[in-house]
Amino acid sequence: MKTDLWVNNFSVHRSGYHLAAPVLYGIINSQKILFGKKKPPVLRNYFMIFEGPNMIQAIHKKEELRELIENTIKEIFKNPKKLNKIHKETYKLNDQYLSFARYCAKINLRELSDAELGKIYLKLIDWQERAHQHAMATTWYLDSDGEDFSKLLIEKTKEFCHSSGAKINFADAFSVLTTSTRDTLGAKEEMESLEVMRLILKDKQAKKIFQNLRNFQIVPVGLSENLARAIQKHFEKWRWLAFNYMGPAYEIDFFLKMWSDLVKQKFDVKKEIQKKKNWAGKIMDQKKTIIRELKIDKKWRTIYNIAADVVNLKGYRKECCFHGFFVMDAMLREMAKRLNLARSQMYLLTFQEIGDIFLKEKKVDANQINKRNGFTILDFKKGKIRVFTGNQAKKYFSKINLEKEIIDKNVSELQGTCACSGQAKGIVKMINFVEDMPKMKKGDVMVAHTTFPNLVPAMKLASAIITEDGGMTCHAAIVARELETPCITGIKTATKVLKDGDLVEINADEGLVKIVKRK
Q1: pLDDT tens-digit profile of 33-63?
Q2: Residues ≥6 apart with Cβ < 8 Å to 219
Q3: 53: Cβ–Cβ under 8 A, 6 or more apart, which residues?
Q4: What is the per-residue pLDDT for 466?
């Protein structure tokens, strides 16, 4: 075991055992879905390291991880119809997951018995697992270690540009060809938000109220009944977008302040609505032009379409999960009350343990739960999740030969992968959490380990976006394309080398960040 090389593949701040544990099952199941049940899983040795509710590392055997990525790329080219079928099924599963979570949100949890509460919770977890794992090999692992698929497509796009002689920038072509015209849930919320904004601007009284609004904690007095209802409805429908893994969700002040700021800026809402309505058609026209001028054959058109689906599907399945986690959190709060536990302690239980407590009346050992606030390991062996704490966890980890990350903090350039083309220059701002967003100013370069829907307001201000998470499938790439903002992903040391206040130049086409001046 010590001679094998292991690698950290991802980390998730504030994820909790209850959300991470289904992934341990999903890694195996996703391989069966892609390669067939008869073929043994390639990636079978992995574990997660936690400190409290934070998954600080997800460790995989490097040789197995590399084999999974290479086999997945081969499968895309060998069986594109199968990939399209899997992706279609994944959209459907996530639609069903979203629908079931919405059903659960309407249930009065206090009226349920312990057994009923346990059953509805496990059913929601089951939908989460099925929807999230179905295309995990393509929507996560494919570009998670070296951005293999993105780089392959970038190089092929360069070839098409060179051989055709067309005067088309390869990075622009790559961005367009791998962009889906399907709306994300975030894009749908933004369109509905603009419609609310339109109602505000149409009403002279409402416009005046929002121009002078100071209290953002409640729906303003003096609005028409229809407008007040529209505001409340929008808040209740979309507040979960900020929830991520463990919350909090948006409060109404987020939306009220956003609309108030837009009114003060004399925002042209009609122009923005039209722009968004035209966006899909614009992308389709650009695709047709690029395909024609670069003379892209049918085989490669299919591959680019699969890539576009991968990009969109990763974002959609993550958004559905965040809605599910928001609904699930209400269940955990109710469970915590009944068990006399803190909400934070519920996050340190796996979903099987929670099921055993509520369906099998298993006793709760609070002392055992509290031990998990320290260094803890979760792994998956013989169909079961194991939890190691204290000395057991340290002994387990001592046998691992973990690949060391080399960081040169004195470098003048950083290299990543183009996720959205373009150039920019600006001041670095580290934005990893919602509380970091106030320091973001228009034109700054946003740098993050990864991005989530609740960081989109900061992304809208950025002249460029840089992330450590890699490839065209990451959330930053999806949003950057909607915003038409230059974006570079997969710079593994970005948050360790760059600092707030550094001046950088971005050439997203080449995936290059040049440090012009350090703070």
Answers
A1: 999 999 999 999 999 999 999 999 999 999 9
A2: 228, 231, 232, 252, 256
A3: 14, 15, 16, 17, 246, 344, 347, 348
A4: 96
Rg value, the chain, Cα:
24
Backbone angles phi, psi at 6, to 5 degrees: -115, 155
Secondary structure (3-state) at 446: strand
Largest CA distance in the chain: 72
Q: CA 479 to CA 76: how far, in whole Å?
A: 25
Cβ–Cβ under 8 Å, residues 355 and 122: yes
- Tell me phi and psi for residue 377, to 5 degrees: -125, 135
Instruction: Tell me if 8 sits within 8 A of 58, measured CB to CB.
Output: yes
Give 112-138 pLDDT, tens digit per residue: 999 999 999 999 999 999 999 999 999
C-alpha angle with apex 345: 9 to 379, nearest 5 degrees? 35
Nearest to 323 by CA among 186, 123, 229: 186
Under DSSP, is residue 144 helix (H, G, I), strand (E, B) or coil? coil
Tracing tokens 């904690």 back to the chain, one arrives at: 217
Residue 292 CA to residue 354 CA, distance in Å, equals 56
- Residues 339-348: contacts with CB within 8 Å, 24+ apart? 339/364, 341/366, 341/369, 344/52, 344/53, 345/369, 345/370, 346/16, 346/18, 347/16, 347/17, 347/18, 347/52, 347/53, 347/246, 348/16, 348/17, 348/52, 348/53, 348/372, 348/373
Give the span between the Cα atoms of 205 and 199, in whole angstroms: 11
Tokens of 286: 């650009």
Edge-to-edge strands of the sheet including 401-402? 384-389, 375-381, 46-51, 54-61, 5-12, 401-402
Residues β-bridged to residue 48: 58, 378
Sketch the domain layout of the chain as residue ranges: 1-32+42-78+374-404, 80-134+302-364, 185-276, 413-517
121 neighbors 358 (Cβ within 8 angstroms)? yes
> Which of 196, 200, 186, 219 shows the shortest CA–CA distance to 266?
200
> What CATH architecture is 413-517?
3-Layer(bba) Sandwich (3.50)
For residue 248, cis peptide bond before it (omega within 30 degrees of 0): yes
Average pLDDT, the chain: 94
